[in-house]
């Protein structure tokens, strides 16, 4: 099929590239000409394992194209995907200005029957707004063109996005039109070699809701475990053991019950807020969802509190080595990363930070921690330790999992680790003579 994907952010770029990989002809559109120029030359603006090679392969085989000209590419496409950003508005709701701007442009330029797919995470009712926007533009043009608006939310995870897209747990298609559903089924059938049952069709509003509910449910699991971790610590239990104890119940399961320094990223914080806001707009107070958010905000500061409990409120003259800045491993993304909040708090108390992250240091330096003084960046995890009072681990990159602890002890002023992701064994730390603070188990 001939596809147009509008928006070359995470979702747009990964979706467009994977559709091209499956043999479709895809043009990815963006208003950012510099970004499009880079992409034409295979330069991708994000770090995502495997993506660069896949983009290049499909550029070479002429299945993947990049352009700033939506009007031109709409003429020959079968399906247009809207994958532009839905940033959080000041009131916590998803801001639809980019989505509706694209809808307007589609209405102004479409020439023939078209399926328009909302792939961005959008509140319930957005497909109707997209439809109305396109319809009004067609009326201005005095045209009567048949089109359908379909909801097809994306569930990919950063860091494993290609795998998630190529081998999805499920694909949700929300459509009120059988022909459009059938076309979507054809598009996705190569992704389900064994079972088409994983393509779930439903009405548009339920599909829009499904995306928010999936993210809110996962965020709830995390906040629940973080709350349990804090209680475990107070009662003298070990959350790492409790986690294994409960995960063995197949009704609960092991995934997404790892306690830590709270969830971050581009989706959970924004989507939990937006769902709360949607409920509020309909006169409902979403108590549990509000609590999920509050627990997460508090959890981001747990490690900073442990540092203060150990070193005092005034951290003047103290140096901390921070391992990990990204909101999770395998990405350079720092959106809502706990590291931002923790580092700012420690610096405000007078501390100096020596930071290292395998991928996110550029983001930190040029954007998220740009204004924060007293943070220096090193190109190796061991270099951050020199003269530091303690090491603080905030992202569970594989390379932090089994470091040379003797080297660590030698470099630090005193052997102290604050572990925001429970990466080490506390007995081993004790045997090594390392003072070890973690989440959900008393030191
Ligand atoms: C998430 C969803 O998983 C994905 O389906 C959706 O499309 C977008 O949002 P992503 O934000 O890339 O994906 O990251 P994910 O791997 O889900 O992790 C989110 C956050 O939860 C991270 O900050 C991670 O550290 C945290 N987390 C995850 C925990 O604290 N504990 C866990 O057990 C799992």
TrEMBL record:
SMART domains: UDPG_MGDP_dh_C
UniProt keyword annotations, A-Z: NAD, Oxidoreductase
InterPro entries: 6-PGluconate_DH-like_C_sf, NAD(P)-bd_dom_sf, UDP-Glc/GDP-Man, UDP-Glc/GDP-Man_DH_C, UDP-Glc/GDP-Man_DH_C_sf, UDP-Glc/GDP-Man_DH_dimer, UDP-Glc/GDP-Man_DH_N, UDPglc_DH_bac
Pathway linked to the protein: Nucleotide-sugar biosynthesis; UDP-alpha-D-glucuronate biosynthesis; UDP-alpha-D-glucuronate from UDP-alpha-D-glucose: step 1/1
SUPFAM superfamilies named in the record: 6-phosphogluconate dehydrogenase C-terminal domain-like, NAD(P)-binding Rossmann-fold domains, UDP-glucose/GDP-mannose dehydrogenase C-terminal domain
Class of this enzyme: oxidoreductase
Family to which the UniProt record says this protein belongs: Belongs to the UDP-glucose/GDP-mannose dehydrogenase family.
Lineage: Bacteria, Pseudomonadati, Bacteroidota, Flavobacteriia, Flavobacteriales
Gene3D superfamilies: Cytochrome c1, transmembrane anchor, C-terminal, NAD(P)-binding Rossmann-like Domain
Signal peptide: none
Reactions accelerated catalytically: UDP-alpha-D-glucose + 2 NAD(+) + H2O = UDP-alpha-D-glucuronate + 2 NADH + 3 H(+)
EC number assigned by the record: 1.1.1.22
Record has Hydrolase as a keyword: no
PANTHER family, per database record: UDP-GLUCOSE 6-DEHYDROGENASE TUAD (PTHR43750:SF3)
Keyword Oxidoreductase: yes
Protein name (database record): UDP-glucose 6-dehydrogenase
Domain UDP-glucose/GDP-mannose dehydrogenase C-terminal: 321-426
Domain of life of the source: Bacteria
């Amino acid at each position: 099929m001939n596809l147009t994907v509008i928006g070359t952010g995470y979702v747009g770029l990964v979706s467009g590239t994977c559709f091209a990989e499956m043999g479709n002809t895809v043009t990815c559109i963006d208003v950012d000409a510099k970004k499009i120029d880079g992409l034409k030359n295979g330069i991708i603006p994000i770090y995502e394992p495997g993506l660069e090679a896949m983009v290049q392969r499909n550029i070479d085989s002429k299945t993947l194209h990049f352009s700033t000209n939506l009007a031109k590419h709409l003429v020959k496409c079968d399906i247009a995907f809207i994958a532009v950003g839905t940033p959080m508005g000041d009131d916590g709701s998803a801001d639809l200005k980019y989505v509706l701007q694209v809808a307007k442009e589609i209405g102004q330029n479409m020439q023939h029957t078209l399926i328009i797919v909302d792939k961005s995470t959008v509140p319930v009712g957005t497909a109707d707004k997209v439809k109305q926007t396109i319809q009004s533009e067609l009326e201005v043009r005095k045209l009567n063109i048949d089109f359908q608006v379909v909801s097809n939310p994306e569930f990919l995870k950063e860091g494993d996005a290609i795998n998630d897209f190529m081998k999805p747990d499920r694909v949700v298609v929300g459509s009120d039109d059988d022909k459009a559903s059938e076309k979507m089924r054809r598009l996705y059938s190569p992704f389900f070699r064994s079972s088409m049952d994983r393509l779930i069709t439903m009405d548009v509003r339920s599909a829009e809701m499904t995306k928010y509910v999936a993210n809110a449910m996962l965020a709830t699991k995390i906040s629940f475990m973080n709350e349990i971790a804090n209680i475990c610590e107070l009662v003298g239990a070990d959350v790492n053991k409790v986690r294994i104890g409960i995960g063995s119940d197949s009704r609960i399961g092991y995934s997404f019950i790892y306690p830590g320094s709270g969830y971050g990223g581009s989706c959970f914080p924004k989507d939990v807020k937006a769902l709360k806001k949607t409920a509020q707009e309909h006169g409902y107070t979403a108590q549990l969802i509000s609590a999920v958010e509050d627990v997460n905000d508090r959890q981001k500061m747990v490690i900073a509190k442990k540092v203060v409990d150990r070193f005092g409120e005034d951290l003047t003259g103290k140096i901390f080595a921070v391992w990990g800045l990204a909101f999770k491993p395998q990405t350079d993304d720092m959106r809502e990363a706990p590291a931002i909040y923790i580092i700012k708090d420690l610096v405000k108390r007078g501390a100096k930070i020596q930071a290292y992250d395998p991928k996110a240091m550029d983001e930190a330096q040029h954007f998220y921690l740009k204004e924060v003084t007293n943070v220096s960046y090193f190109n190796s995890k061991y270099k951050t330790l020199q003269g530091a009072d303690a090491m603080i681990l905030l992202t569970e990159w594989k390379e932090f999992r089994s470091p040379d602890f003797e080297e660590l002890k030698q470099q630090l002023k005193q052997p102290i680790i604050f572990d925001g992701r429970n990466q080490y064994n506390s007995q081993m730390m004790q045997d090594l003579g390392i003072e070890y603070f973690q989440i959900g188990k008393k030191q």
